[in-house]
């Protein structure tokens, strides 16, 4: 959700209303549950700013490690998919910005067997910035939890290096600048910073000729293979990867725009004799922010994972990488998975039977090397959620506070599950047993009726309607559509916001439950240009009209908005005058409209307050407003509406900050629009959700919502669900 100051310039200058607080409302914690797995999107994806984060690695004795961009580290039993431990991983405190929550170093798992290249433990690579200069290093996480700084195979962006342990010795291969005339600067320049005494490295652009591959010596005595040099064809070297036995080294080379896109070639060089073969990867490969992978499976096959460029948008095709198992000497693919599978990375197991990847930036997967097929997921990711009313009895114990969660469960599949605040899967009233509903693709959106009698679950191209026992009641095809927002209102009206691939824009869809509990489509009146319907839709339509100010029609000029309220047949009930841009949100029963308008604060640039007021949906009569300001007057900081309570008076707000390359959440606030005061919240609720995200640091952004019975607030923080009890039901 965008904050008012980041939407568009606002001309209206109003004084900020400084209000006292009331302690009449209390909010107390009532349980928490953690769904095992990484939060959705926290690994990043191909083509994202900063590229994928964290990654996967094999551990000893049939285990695997997974690390996301929020620095959450899991260790898994690969044969069962069970989690063995979970922790938040921090780099050694001696590294620059080690504890910086916003722009600290990025951590990446070394995608080999744990302990192969260093002391026993997990090798974690680090990328950070010191004195405006990027640096790379690594540390080993030992079994006793110590973090030992040191990189056994140091690399830079311009001088890739490959290492492999063969017997008791380590083989190291690297690149360097090739011969050229006129002379070009070296690929790395080092100097000592007088302020810190640290040696720093700069990375000029590579010379125009091909790099030289320096092959380290292997073995000893009569079987010793001495160091040698092989000149590579022109191109930017992205990866240098020796085979497990050291007999061959594979080089991933990009020919095209430096750091951008081009044709990727794989050079396979024999260590003894220096014979080289090469072959091209099909398509236009993205290198920048797409992390191409090149991994040996044994000594004769390679797993490749590369993102392909969309020639129209310039971004990654399909949101993932093309993964293939190839013959190392010919490049012939034994099998190939397209980028539309949504996979990033391909890390084979030490025995060559399995490989690890990450789907959709969310769920690590185990797959077979022989055919590339899915074996199992390592955890699940919550992709959509909705709090439910009331409680259920499970094993004789009361379970107050429940939620429906839509999950990504690996293999491209999804599921809908019902959880109580102890994390148990529970039935609804009238349900005979606990249940979970599986779907063939990852859900996009979820909604439930206020009594939990019906659930709507949207997946790409389809909508499912379920009853409280988990039985499928209806499947509606939505060809070419992807639903982003789904909402039930009182009266059984289901409304959806969907993206139409053919039209390249948004559509609003509406259905109504009939007497048999089936969804029947409703036809909406056509929208004027620059207008959209506000969700949820009930017995009335809220149409938001937007235009440029009559005084300034330039594309950069201020916007004006107008709210028009119609019945479902299109008849106009009332309409407000054009004014400064404001958002509208209808209550679930359709009786009240919540209005929100960002306003500038005098003397402050790019800092917005938020003006909130209620209006009668039938007449448009407005009540006196409440204006709240951010707790700190910082650039790009403001407030946004998170949810509107069933009692049509309480509003949850989030306070955040950010621009197009990252931001922050500073917590949640609660306002009572009937008494026009802010309600104090416990520190763990109101200010305990500070989060920094974006710009290569993909982290979950907490979201909040009222339960439909008005007895609970639910916070969803990635895969964590936290219930808080309050009194937000009843009438006005």
UniProtKB/TrEMBL annotation:
Q: Does the keyword Signal apply?
A: yes
Q: Which residues form the signal peptide?
A: 1-24
Instruction: State the UniProt keywords alphabetically.
Output: Signal
Q: Superkingdom of this entry's organism?
A: Bacteria
Segments of this protein annotated with the region Disordered: 167-209
Identification of the protein by name: Uncharacterized protein
């Amino acid at each position: 959700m965008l904050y008012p100051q980041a939407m568009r310039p606002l001309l209206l200058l109003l004084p900020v209303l400084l209000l006292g607080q009331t302690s009449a409302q209390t909010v107390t914690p009532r349980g928490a549950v953690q769904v095992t797995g990484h939060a959705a999107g926290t690994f990043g994806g191909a083509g994202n700013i900063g590229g994928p984060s964290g990654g996967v690695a094999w551990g000893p004795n049939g285990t695997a490690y997974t690390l996301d961009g929020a620095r959450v580290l899991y260790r898994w039993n690969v044969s069962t998919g069970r989690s063995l431990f979970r922790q938040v991983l921090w780099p050694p405190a001696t590294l620059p910005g080690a504890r910086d929550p916003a722009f600290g170093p990025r951590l990446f798992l070394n995608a080999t067997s744990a302990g192969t290249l260093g002391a026993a433990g997990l090798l974690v690579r680090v990328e950070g910035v010191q004195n405006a200069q990027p640096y790379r290093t690594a540390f080993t996480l030992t079994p006793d939890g110590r973090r030992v700084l040191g990189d056994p195979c140091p690399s830079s962006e311009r001088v890739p290096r490959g290492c492999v342990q063969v017997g008791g010795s380590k083989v190291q291969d690297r690149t360097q600048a090739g011969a050229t005339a006129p002379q070009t600067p070296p690929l790395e320049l080092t100097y000592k910073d007088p302020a810190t005494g640290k040696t720093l490295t700069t990375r000029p652009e590579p010379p125009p000729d091909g790099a030289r591959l320096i092959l380290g010596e292997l073995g000893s005595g009569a079987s010793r293979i001495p160091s040698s040099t092989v000149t590579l064809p022109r191109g930017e070297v992205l990866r240098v990867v020796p085979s497990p036995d050291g007999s061959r080294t594979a080089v991933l080379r990009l020919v095209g725009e430096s750091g951008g896109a081009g044709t990727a070639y794989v050079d396979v060089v024999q260590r003894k004799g220096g014979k080289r073969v090469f072959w091209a990867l099909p398509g236009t490969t993205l290198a920048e922010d797409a992390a191409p992978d090149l991994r040996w499976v044994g000594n004769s096959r390679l797993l490749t994972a590369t993102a392909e460029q969309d020639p129209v948008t310039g971004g990654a095709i399909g949101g993932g990488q093309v993964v293939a198992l190839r013959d190392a000497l010919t490049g012939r693919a034994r099998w190939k998975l397209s980028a539309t599978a949504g996979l990033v990375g391909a890390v084979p197991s030490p025995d060559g039977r399995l490989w690890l990847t990450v789907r959709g930036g969310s769920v690590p997967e185990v797959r077979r090397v022989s055919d590339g097929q899915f074996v199992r997921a390592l955890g699940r990711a919550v992709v959509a959620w909705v709090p439910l009313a009331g409680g259920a009895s499970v094993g004789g114990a009361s379970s107050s506070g429940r939620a429906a969660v839509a999950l990504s469960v690996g293999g491209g599949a999804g599921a809908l599950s019902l959880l109580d605040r102890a994390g148990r899967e529970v039935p609804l009233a009238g349900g005979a047993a606990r249940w979970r509903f599986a779907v063939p693709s990852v859900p996009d959106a979820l909604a439930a009726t206020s009594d939990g009698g019906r659930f709507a679950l949207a997946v790409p191209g389809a909508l499912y309607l379920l009853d409280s026992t988990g039985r499928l009641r209806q499947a509606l095809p939505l060809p070419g559509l992807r639903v982003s927002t789904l909402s039930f209102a009182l009266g059984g009206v289901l409304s959806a916001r969907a993206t139409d691939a053919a039209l390249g824009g948004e559509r609003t869809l509406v259905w109504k439950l009939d007497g048999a509990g089936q969804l029947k489509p409703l036809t909406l009146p056509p929208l004027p240009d620059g207008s959209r319907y506000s969700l949820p839709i009930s017995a009335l339509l809220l149409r938001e009209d937007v235009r440029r100010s009559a005084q300034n029609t330039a594309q950069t000029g201020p916007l004006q908005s107008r709210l028009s309220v119609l019945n479902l047949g299109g008849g106009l009930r009332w309409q407000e005058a054009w004014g400064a841009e404001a958002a509208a949100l209808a209550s679930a029963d359709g009786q009240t409209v919540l209005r929100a308008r960002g306003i500038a604060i005098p003397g402050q640039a790019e800092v917005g307050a938020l003006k909130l007021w209620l209006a009668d949906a039938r007449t448009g009569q407005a009540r006196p407003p409440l204006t709240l300001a951010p707790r700190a007057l910082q650039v790009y900081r403001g407030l946004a509406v998170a949810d509107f309570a069933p009692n049509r008076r309480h509003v949850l707000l989030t306070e955040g900050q950010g621009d197009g390359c990252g931001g922050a959440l500073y917590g949640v606030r609660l306002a009572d629009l009937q008494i026009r005061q802010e309600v104090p919240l416990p520190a763990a609720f109101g200010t305990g959700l500070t989060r920094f995200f974006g710009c290569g640091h993909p982290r979950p952004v907490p979201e909040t919502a009222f339960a439909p019975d008005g007895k609970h607030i639910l916070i969803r923080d990635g895969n964590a669900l936290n219930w808080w009890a309050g009194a937000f039901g009843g009438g006005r």
